[in-house]
Write a structure and sequence with these properties.
The N and C termini lie far apart (43 Å). Helix 2 (22-50) crosses helix 7 (199-222), helix 4 (119-130) crosses helix 5 and helix 5 (133-147) packs antiparallel against helix 7 (199-222). The chain is α+β, with helices and mostly antiparallel strands and 231 residues long. It has helices at residues 8-13, 22-50, 59-62, 119-130, 133-147, 174-177, 199-222, and strands at 84-89, 99-104, 108-116, 153-156, 181-189. The protein is built from 7 helices and 5 strands; from the N terminus they run αααβββααβαβα. It has a 5-stranded antiparallel beta sheet with strand order 1-2-3-5-4, with helices on one face.
């Protein structure tokens, strides 16, 4: 299935989804599937193909469901989400792989790069960020921030209260060293071409800005370590 555009009306339904019950959702399920979920799968496939990176797309995993598993949600959380989340990643284990995201709601399109840390990746992250390689990541982050112009760029992730040993509290990348997971993200207003095939190129252009960071994560955290390198 080639991406031909989203149904603008289906995107507008995202605004109402958190207030729906299961009966209301069932009544609109077909339109959401045909106008949002299925085009979303085609979009992330086309965007991943357009980027110069080794990326995986698996429809079932790359298009997150519109409903939440309330067993793991905070008390009072809405059953349905207000956004469509699309992912493509590098590696076989999506859970801890360097990942690129597209997040679409009724007003905005968000783009992100990052990953969750398992214990080994956390150690490799600290070694890389704390050493010379960390300078490259800091430069790449700064370039994204400068290139975003009026769009706010957020570096997000749960963080320790203190910089972990053996690094000093005044390390130039102390904020990155404290992180327990990493994501850099920004959002832009939903463009008119969301209903057209041209939306693929629009999204690819924006994710391409994050590729230097994504590639850094792949090289420093996902690829096998050189022999003798300290964890």
């Amino acid at each position: 299935m080639a991406f031909e555009g989203f149904d603008r009306g289906a995107i507008e339904l995202l605004r109402k989804l958190p207030d729906w019950d299961t009966n209301t959702y069932s009544a609109e399920k077909t339109r959401l599937k045909q106008g949002l979920v299925e085009p979303g799968g085609a979009l992330i496939e086309a965007v991943a193909e357009a980027l110069d990176a080794d990326l995986s797309v698996v429809r079932r995993s790359s298009v997150s469901p519109l409903h939440r598993d309330l067993r793991f949600a905070p008390a009072g959380a809405a059953r349905y989400k207000d956004h469509l989340l699309l992912t493509t990643w590098n590696g076989s284990d999506k859970k801890f792989a360097p990942t690129l995201w597209i997040r679409i709601d009724a007003d905005r399109v968000g783009f992100a790069s990052g990953l969750a840390f398992d214990p080994k990746q956390r150690d490799r992250w600290r070694d890389a960020v704390g050493g010379k390689a960390g300078e490259g990541l800091a430069r790449a982050i700064r370039k994204v921030e400068l290139g975003a112009r009026k769009h706010f760029v957020e570096v997000a992730g749960d963080a320790l209260k203190q910089v972990p040993a053996p690094w000093e509290a005044d390390h130039p990348r102390a904020d990155l060293l404290r992180m327990k997971g990493f994501q850099i993200r920004f959002a832009e207003p939903l463009p008119r071409n969301v209903e057209k095939p041209a939306f693929v190129g629009w999204c690819a252009t924006r994710l391409r800005r994050l590729l230097p960071i994504h590639n850094w994560l792949v090289n420093e955290l996902a690829k096998p370590m050189a022999r003798g390198r300290r964890r």
